[in-house]
Amino acid sequence: MVDIATRVYNHKWKIDPIVRSLIDTDFYKLLMCQSIFRNKRDTTVTFSLHNRSKSIRLAELIDEGELRQQLDYARDLRLARGESTWLRGNTFYGKRQMFRPDFMEWFEGFQLPPYHLEVRDGQYDLTFEGKWHEVMLWEIPALAILMELRSRAVLNAMGRFELQVLYARAMARVWEKIEALKGIPGLRIADFGTRRRHGFLWQDWCVQAMIEGLGDAAKGGAFTGTSNCLIAMRRDLEAVGTNAHELPMVYAALADSDAALREAPYKVLADWQEEHEGNLRIILPDTYGTRGFLEHAPDWLAGWTGIRIDSGDPVEGAETAIKWWKARGEDPTQKLVIFSDGLDVEKIRELHEHFAGRVRVSFGWGTLLTNDFRGLVPDGGLAPFSLVCKAISAEGRPTVKLSDNPEKALGPADEITRYKRVFGVGQQEAMPVVV
């Protein structure tokens, strides 16, 4: 097993580049990339970094030269032969050749496109503009680079023994969480922690701990896999993930009228349905409000496998879905509900107990699995924070995300007002954004 503290102490990033592979990314990004490659490959989109945690002044913590070195290293990456073989020949969600030959031929020659970096008011203004299927693949590497550079900036001042003790305490914390999860009967849980991880080596350690502590679901355990493709390949695990808010955000921005805007989230899923079946047919309804999305959803969506709850009150979101399935003549006990917002052990336990036997419950555990160093260094220096990289425009038109939590809303104020009107979003309860 890697001695993480010693590797960190040596500070040799050329041995440990933050992003070391094009598949050091979340599985859903590749699934969405293929869909966009097929349906919207000529669409021009701009992605931009957004730090919701304004008190974390990244440009004052992270050296710009180091940031550029890491971004440039990522730009030089190409898909390795073994990685291509894994993507082409592996079985994902029970399906062989998930990735089509034309997409793979393109991906095998792909490199990340140029970036634009500036400093504004203590924050990095990092943007990526180009063809949607190309620039979208910057999202996860950009977030992973900034998150780990922040970690390294704090760790650089620590001595060898101090680092050993820090990681011993962090490891004990993760293991205590895993021990607590063992007591939940019928638990199904996956690692969703790539985008805001403490570091690659730490995420890999956390995944190995989950395998040992909970058991691989393929062998009867509770751990269903990881969203990180590189770790999934190396550890012989399921790569998990479906789709994200990015798809409806861009489709909506391209709409030419209020009527087309209202239909955009369903057009996304109609395109998705043409390519995927089974457990890949998971609805993410909260981009413009879960309640309104379900009220106006076409009947065929009720036949999908399940739903992912990613913002707002998770109990309310899942109860709304259960009522919707029942009203459409579907049996909720056969439906899958995936919880993925700000999870930690207590919330996982509470949600599992509340919904066990009523739906099939699963969890995507993110930041508080792969980046919970809260209280382990002074002044919250390694506490996780909320950093996102989102599509901000498509063909020059601004994108909008409303969410079930207004604290997560993104977009120009006038467009947010318009989207709320079009989608019938009323008063929303603001909730703290944990991560």
> In percent terms, what proportion of residues is strand?
5-15%
Radius of gyration: 21 Å
Helix segment tally: 18
What is the typical, i.e. mean, pLDDT? 95
Strand order of the largest sheet: 7-6-11-10-9-8
SS elements, strand count: 13
Structural category: alpha/beta
Structure described in brief:
With 435 residues, this protein is α/β, with parallel strands linked by helices. It has helices at 4-10, 27-39, 58-61, 64-75, 81-89, 101-108, 132-135, 139-155, 160-181, 200-214, 229-235, 246-253, 258-275, 290-295, 314-327, 345-355, 367-370, 413-422, and strands at residues 44-51, 91-92, 95-96, 116-120, 123-131, 189-191, 223-226, 282-283, 306-309, 336-339, 360-365, 387-394, 397-398. The longest helix has 22 residues, at 160-181.
Strand and helix layout:
Elements: H1 4-10, H2 27-39, E1 44-51, H3 58-61, H4 64-75, H5 81-89, E2 91-92, E3 95-96, H6 101-108, E4 116-120, E5 123-131, H7 132-135, H8 139-155, H9 160-181, E6 189-191, H10 200-214, E7 223-226, H11 229-235, H12 246-253, H13 258-275, E8 282-283, H14 290-295, E9 306-309, H15 314-327, E10 336-339, H16 345-355, E11 360-365, H17 367-370, E12 387-394, E13 397-398, H18 413-422
Parallel strand pairs: 6-7, 6-11, 8-9, 9-10, 10-11
Antiparallel strand pairs: 1-5, 1-12, 2-3, 4-5, 12-13
